[in-house]
Every structure is written in C-alpha cells, then in structure tokens.
Amino acid sequence: MINLGSLFGKSSPPLAGLDISTSGLRLVELADAGKGVLRLERHAFEALPRGAVVDGNIENFDQVAEAVRRIWKKSGTRAKNVALGMPPASVITKKIILPAGMAEDQLEVQVESEASQYIPFALDEVSLDFDVVGPAPNSPDDMEVMLAAARREKVEDRVAIAEAAGLTATVMDIESYAARAALERAAPAGKDKIVALFQIGAGITHVSMLHNGDTVYEKEQAFGGNTLTQEIVRSYGLAYEEAETRKKSGDLPENFRADVLTPFLESAALEVTRAIQFFFTSTPYTRIDQIWLAGGSAPLPGLVELIGGRTRIPTAQVTPFDGMLLAPGLREAQVRADGASYLVACGLGLRRFG
Known about the structure:
InterPro entries: ATPase_NBD, FtsA/MreB, PilM, SHS2_FtsA. The chain is α/β, with parallel strands linked by helices.
C-alpha cells in the first residue's frame, strides 16, 4: 500500500498544523488543557512572495522553505512534527463498499484493486490511503471505506518543504477535511442541519455544503481577496505588496470603502448567492440553515451583513478558536480577529489528538 502520510491515522504529540496557501503560511499549535478543553499554544502568519504558491502548487521551493523556517522561529514552537494539508483539487476521494471482516493485508489489496477503477493515473504514480468509515448503510455484511489518492509528486513537494526546514511531516490531510473538523469543533451544527462553508482565499473560494457533518457538495470558484488587492493597486498606484499590507491594516484613503471595498463586497455576495442557487439546482437539497465565512477576506467589514441580507440565511464568520483557553501572551482580541483565516491550520493542529 502506498501511504498518503497517515491521512486518516493518528499522530503523535507534539505536533503543529501548517497551512500553506497562496497568500502565506499559517501555523497553529494546540494542547490538551484537560477535561475536554483545548488550549491554543501559539499561532503565527508568514507572508509568501507572489508566485511562490499558485493554485495550491509550490512554484518556488526555496522561498516557501525559507518562509517555513521563519514562521517556526517566529512562533516559538518546539514541535518538530507537522501536519500539512493538500488542496482538495489535488486529491481524489471516493467512498467504496467492501465485505466486512477482512484482515488488514486483504483490505489493502482490495483497496488497491478498487482504486485502479477511480484513479486516472498508474498506482505507482500516486500516494494512496484509506480509512474504514463503518458499516455500509442498509448492508450489515459490508463496510464503507473512504479512499484518498494524490499524485505522489504533489505530496512529496510538501514533505520536502517540511524536511528542508528541519521538520517531519507526520500527517498529510486534505485542506477541506481539516476545515470541516475545525468548524465542527467550534460550531456543531446539530442534527439534520445543512451548513454552507465559504472559504474565501486569495484566488479561490472553496464552497462546502455539509449535512449532519458530512460533505454533500463541494465546488471551487475563481474568486478571492487578490481581486480586492489588485483593485487597490489600480486605484491608488501602490505596489502589490504594499497594497496587501495596507488592505489588512486599513491604512487606505477615505474613499476606499465607497469606491473600492463596496464593489468587491457586492461581487463576493453575488458569488455566494450563485453558489447557493447552483447547489439547490444540482442536488436534492432545497434549504441552508447556516452560512459560515472563513479565509482572509471573511473579516472584511460589512461582508457578513451583506451576505446575510442577500441570502436571508443566518451568516457569521468562523471563529475556530472559540471555546479554547489561550496560552499566556496571546491576546483574545487579536486571536478572534485573525481566527477566520486560521480555519485550515486549526483543523490540521487538531490532528495532534487523532
């Protein structure tokens, strides 16, 4: 069996979650505070140069590896084990049904045989992992198995980045799975609830629709915070890096909100409403009970209210660190302000606990 780096397995503490995205790196380290309570030990962000990571692909190895070294030093973590994420578009997942009660070696052989039907690459070109989900619905003699596969070179790129920074990648997760785990911990949806999660990244918005905690619909849309940054560049004649910095700090001219931010918010709300309508027309579902916003653009002032008003669905920003204790030195206001952009990193950090 070609292993996808313990995609579904348990990890050994200590471990830090590291989210590698287009805009930068985000690190989260969690600890068990006892009695079922988690403690946020540290979180950190390190920007990446433009073009270092594009559409989830590492384009400049040295720049990303050096950024990993910087974020580790900045965070102060002593963890040498790291949980990394793969972009959903880079991973093929499939639920398959197999006879229950097979020995581990038999199961591996059977999974490889089944995988060849769903993976459009030779098996020696992919990293493969699986997890037994449980009994198959309406078939007690069978079991449901989740299969996950990714091009080996994509997995090895991330493993090599960790190794170049003196770290060991002990867990390789899927970013959308990590985000879902963090959301479920912070905001359990309740029975029979349908939840929409919009992760607005730099260039891509990842849409996930969840029913009873299971993903029933996923889609990526070519829209993100880079659009706003580029409009700031065009409107005020700033270099891209300066525009990105000033976007985050709010240090922009008085007309920014009316002339630049509001049109971007309108576009974001339109993307959300279109995604919801497509979900309704392409699935049996006809309602959504809650919209959650995550990613670097989620905290933009007015976005939550605009989307909630347009969709008439309760809308809120994800705060994945809710319910956690904070280590000394962490400021609650800053943690809450940054939280929406750390959803994936938080989910990766949760892999410390299996």
